[in-house]
Design a protein that fits this description.
Length: about 140
């Protein structure tokens, strides 16, 4: 019996909706990353994008364990002298609620061109509304 290797032309893509309300960031990110890569499918092939689309709603209501809300910081550097900024998770959730989830999922994907393509299939929204009802997404319960 030969080993099955998926081809990008034959991959069937589904849409999933995940409600992030009161979900722990790390555990939620692992599940999202596995769906984006296609690891939940029997046709998973590491070098082919076999993953599905994921829509995350209520990103502003995500939970973090311990004191991460205040102690964990994101660092940004402009390239100029003194151009370093640090923001806590609470500040980032107030400014850009989608950044926290996207950043966590990006860290769990491989570091290559294929992973950057996979990350484009992640749609994160702060509220409970999303514009992807036409794709008939399935609700994922965690």
């Amino acid at each position: 019996m030969k080993t099955f290797l998926a081809k990008k032309e034959t991959v069937q893509r589904n849409w999933y909706v995940i409600d992030a309300k009161d979900q722990v960031l790390g555990r939620l990110s692992v599940k999202i990353a596995n769906i984006l890569r296609g690891r939940n499918k029997p046709t998973f092939t590491p070098h082919v994008d076999t993953g599905d689309f994921v829509v995350v709603i209520n990103a502003d209501k995500i939970a973090l364990t311990g004191k991460k809300e205040d102690q964990k910081q994101y660092m940004f550097y402009s390239g100029y002298v003194g151009g370093e900024k640090r923001l806590s998770v609470a500040d980032m959730q107030a400014r850009q609620p989608d950044f926290v989830i996207k950043h966590a999922v990006k860290g769990m994907l491989p570091k290559n061109r294929l992973a950057r393509k996979m990350l484009t299939k992640l749609k994160v929204y702060a509220g409970a509304e999303h514009p992807h009802e036409a794709q008939n997404p399935q609700v994922v319960s965690l």
